[in-house]
Write a structure and sequence with these properties.
The chain is mainly α and 105 residues long. It has one domain: Helix Hairpins (Orthogonal Bundle). Helices cover 80% and strands 0% of the residues. It contains four helices and no strands. Helix 1 runs antiparallel to helix 2.
Length: 105
Amino acid sequence: MISLKAYLFVSMILMVTGLVVMISRKNIVAILLGIELILNSAALNFVAYSKYAANNLDGHIFSLFIIVIAAAEAAVGLAIVIRFFQVKETIHIDEASELREELTR
């Protein structure tokens, strides 16, 4: 049987990887993937603590909500990226500061 420490270690690796991706990348899609990794890390924590500490289904229900929120975030985020690409013809985050000026004209 896998121990709680193993689950928490995998969750920590997912969290750190997500943070590194969010900080180091300038690509909007890569930043969204980093956010997905962080959300998956939180879902794994909920499931692990639900299994080992509380021995009920509360963590599983919370992780289901996290998966739904992550899917909605991905859909909205990709729609924003597609619109951003149509306006700027790039997906680099440095160009996003100028987006407000062009949309208000």
